[in-house]
Structures are given as structure tokens and as C-alpha cells.
Specification:
This protein has 7 helices and 19 strands. Helix 4 links the parallel strand 8 and strand 9.
Length: 337
């Protein structure tokens, strides 16, 4: 006789094996004495396995991850699941309500880990997440988008020197993998310090839905679950991810209006004119040239700039890897066209 799996517990709630439960973690109160909760969905599988935590909106204006989580909820059956899936669609509920990246005190929640139960609001929320959710996880996927007016090509960021994280990144199937050691005060950095492999998916723009970002993100999460043995079936990726060796921000050399010459995902060659900056009152334009060969993985969508502001984020590759990355990216974009 097969021994029945023990229940999974969060905040005093018991989730029986083979079931799903929504749990509300009391986060804090508004000035009006209205309670705000972090809503958590737990899928506790019949069979033992990893505990995967998928979270979104640590920055409250990053909406694509929320939609990825929402669609994920409809794709998992706890009776067919090995292990446990914890889904947190909205971590920063305060920022989400205000359509803001930050908390009401302008603190960045993703710079406050592990936090403290006796600290300010951001510190308390970070501590709640770390002690009530992250502590249960064996693996983590952190869903993000670009900042406001900045669009990011789908990419995975992780410490590629860690074999487990690199395997998760390759299974996810985003076209690009960026080597990135996390800040120690970020959720990803704290998870890594605790020995929990965490990868970060970055795609799209704040306060905007992108079907490309959402569909590829959902497929990526399901692929990671398959690779971990949580779901049956094989990882299904039409293209293989390519790792960039570094990335470079091209910054404005002048102030004014911007005429972009290239789009997100396009290849650039060193010296190529990628934008012109002009004064709204006329006069000569300033040409902005690519400082390196690469692929544009991030772009500013607002056509005005001040000197020194980031305009393009270019990924660099080793040797002929750029050719492979360009081909794989074309196939990836065709898949979701």
C-alpha cells in the first residue's frame, strides 16, 4: 500500500495531497484600516517531488507575470502533479493597486530582502515572503518586466555558473540567457544565499500586456516543471537558448527628441547608426552609433531623452554565437507571431 503524502502547511492552513487551496497572507493595512493580503495558490500533488515557487509583481507595475500566473492556475491539476506548486501572482499588492513599481514609501521591495518583522513596510513584506513562502521552496521562478517605457526581449537572468539554475534556464526556453549574479538584498539573491536555485524571467514593459511575453513565459514555466519531474511529458522547445557573455547600455549623448532606427530584437553591428537625437527647435541631429556588435534586448519606448539616459540594451556574444542567437531569435519570434 502506497503511503499517503502528508499535507502541506502555510500560515496554519493544511493543503491535502491532490488538492488546491487559495490562501491569503495578511500583509498590512491601509490608512483606512482596510486589510491587504498576499493571495497564494497552493497545488499539493499526490506524489512527492520538488516545491516550485512562481511569483510575479514584486514590482507592482509589472503585469505580464501576473497574467502568466493566472493562466498557469488553469493548467495544473494537483492530482497529476508530483511535488508542490506555490503561485503568488501579486507580491507587491500596494504597488499593484497604485500601478507603481514601488511601495507607498517609494521603497523597492526587491531591495529589502530578507527583511525584518520589526522593520518598515517594505522590510516587513520581504520578511513575510521569505519566512512564509520562500522557506518552503526548492526552486523559484521570479517573473518580471522592463520598467515603465522600457521594453525587454524575453530572457532569463541567472548565475549560469550554477548547474541547477542553468538547467532551469535552458528548460525554460527563452531565446536568451543572461549571466547575472543577483544583488544580495533582492529576492533572487536571498534565495540563492539560502541554497534555493532561482531564475528570473524578464519580458515586456511595465503596465502593458505583451502576448509574446505572456505566452513564452507560461510555456517556460511549464517546461521547467516538466524538467523537474513535476509534470509528465518532455520539455518542448523549438529553439535552444543562447547565452550572452555580457550586455551593454547605450546612453544618450544629447538631450531632445529621439528617432529610433532599430527595433527590439534586431541585430546591430558596431558603428551602425541606431538612433538620431534632435532638438524640438530644429538644428543638426546627433547620431547614436552602436558601440559593439550584438542584439537589442532592451529599448526605451519614449521618444524623448536627456543626456546619459539609457536608450538601448545590447547583448554581446562570443565568436559566432551571435549568428546562432540571431537565427534562434527569428525562429522564436515566428513561433509566437
Amino acid at each position: 500500500m502506497v503511503k499517503k503524502r502528508e499535507a502541506f502547511e502555510i500560515e496554519g492552513k493544511r493543503v491535502i495531497a491532490g488538492t488546491q487551496m487559495g490562501i491569503k497572507l495578511p500583509a498590512a493595512k491601509l490608512y483606512t484600516d482596510t486589510q491587504l493580503d498576499i493571495h497564494v495558490e497552493v497545488f499539493h500533488g499526490l506524489k512527492p517531488g520538488p516545491t516550485l515557487l512562481v511569483c510575479a509583481a514584486i514590482h507592482g507595475d509589472e503585469l505580464n507575470g501576473i497574467e502568466i500566473c493566472r493562466r498557469l492556475l488553469g493548467r495544473v491539476n494537483p492530482k497529476n502533479l508530483a511535488g508542490t506548486l506555490i503561485v503568488v501572482p501579486i507580491v507587491n499588492v500596494f504597488g499593484f493597486i497604485q500601478q507603481s513599481r514601488y511601495l507607498p514609501d517609494r521603497r523597492d521591495l526587491n531591495r529589502c530582502f530578507p527583511g525584518s518583522s520589526k522593520g518598515a513596510l517594505a522590510s516587513r513584506l520581504a520578511n513575510l515572503f521569505a519566512t512564509q513562502l520562500l522557506v518552503h521552496a526548492t526552486h523559484v521562478i521570479d517573473l518580471h518586466t522592463g520598467a515603465i517605457h522600457r521594453d525587454n526581449l524575453p530572457q532569463i537572468r541567472c548565475d549560469t555558473g550554477d548547474a541547477t539554475m542553468l538547467a532551469m534556464a535552458n528548460a525554460f526556453g527563452a531565446p536568451l540567457i543572461m549571466h547575472s549574479k543577483a544583488r544580495s538584498v533582492s529576492m533572487r539573491g536571498y534565495a540563492n544565499q539560502q541554497g534555493i536555485p532561482c531564475i528570473l524571467y524578464e519580458a515586456g514593459e511595465a503596465l502593458r500586456f505583451s502576448e509574446l511575453a505572456i505566452k513564452s513565459g507560461l510555456k517556460g514555466v511549464l517546461n521547467v516543471m516538466r524538467s523537474l519531474g513535476m509534470l509528465k511529458g518532455r520539455v518542448s522547445n523549438k529553439v535552444a537558448s543562447v547565452s550572452a557573455i555580457r550586455s551593454y547600455w547605450v546612453r544618450s549623448e544629447s538631450d531632445g527628441l529621439v528617432n529610433m532606427k532599430l527595433k527590439l530584437g534586431q541585430r546591430v553591428n558596431k558603428g551602425y547608426i541606431i538612433a538620431h537625437i534632435v532638438s524640438p527647435h530644429g538644428g543638426d541631429s546627433v547620431a547614436i552609433r552602436a558601440p559593439t556588435d550584438g542584439i537589442i534586448i532592451g529599448i526605451s519606448n519614449i521618444p524623448v531623452t536627456n543626456e546619459g539616459e539609457g536608450m538601448f540594451h545590447i547583448a554581446q556574444f562570443e565568436g559566432d554565437e551571435i549568428e546562432i542567437a540571431n537565427e534562434q531569435l527569428d525562429e522564436f519570434l515566428m513561433e509566437y507571431a
